[in-house]
Amino acid sequence: MQRSERQKAIIQAVSTGGTLGVDDLRRLTGASAVTVRRDLAELAAAGAVTRTHGGVRRAAKRGAQMPFGSRFEADLELKSRLGAAAAALVEDDESLVLDNGTTCLAVAQALAGRPVTVLALSLHGAAALAARPGVSVVVPGGPVETDSLALVGSDAVDAVRAVRVDVAVLGACSASVTDGLTSTTPEDAAIKRACLEAARRRVLVATPDKLGRSSTFRFGAPSDLTHLVTTADAPAEALAGFRAAGVEVVLA
Length: 252
Hints:
The structure is a single chain. The protein has helices spanning 3-14, 22-29, 33-45, 68-73, 76-87, 102-111, 123-130, 154-161, 186-198, 236-244, and strands at 19-21, 49-52, 55-58, 95-98, 117-120, 136-138, 165-170, 174-176, 180-183, 199-205, 217-220, 227-230, 248-251. By secondary structure, it is of the alpha/beta class. It has two domains: 3-70, Winged helix-like DNA-binding domain superfamily/Winged helix DNA-binding domain (Arc Repressor Mutant, subunit A); 75-251, 3-Layer(aba) Sandwich (Rossmann fold). A seven-stranded parallel beta sheet has the order 6-5-4-7-10-12-13, sandwiched between helices. Helix 1 (3-14) packs across helix 3, helix 5 (76-87) crosses helix 6 and helix 8 (154-161) packs parallel to helix 9. The longest helix has 13 residues, at 33-45. The protein is globular. The mean pLDDT is 91.
């Protein structure tokens, strides 16, 4: 079992409210006790579970995500394809603002080494971009989220509002033709809204499971986008709705 699969299995196992010990989870995942304890430490640090004496239980906050590294590893090949397809929409010598999140990290990796200027809204993304010479990388000031390393708060929003770029590449918690583009937090929605306003071309990169879902905080409508990058197995009804809204759909 890969790390992302193990950690997802652990979260699901405790989701009903029970407490499980290391031995229970070792039998569940087939991993060693040392590996299980390492997983529990990562999950607890990310707020995805709560450690107990000798075991683990459901997180106090429902809906907590797996650690960023594990989420990035999940569907890595799919995200790499999406990242490459989104990067292909950026011309050399253009400027862009690049959103936070695991799929946008894949875009950053695909852009590394290209002669572009990027305002990166995640330290994960900034590090991937700066790993090879060629990209000019800028990061805004302000607070940094633990684990996701996303730049958040008014300083980041102000930094985006102060630029005019060729392209904005966005991730989304949810994207629905009927409910619009949404996020789980008002802070994330505010910075995504600023990204839409700052760019001439506005690209949403989304795995198929994000289409047709809705979260709490709305930051835009499908018609605010110029491009949607997803895969051919995305729901046909959702793709048709985005196309009807004037969005060019790119299938990776």
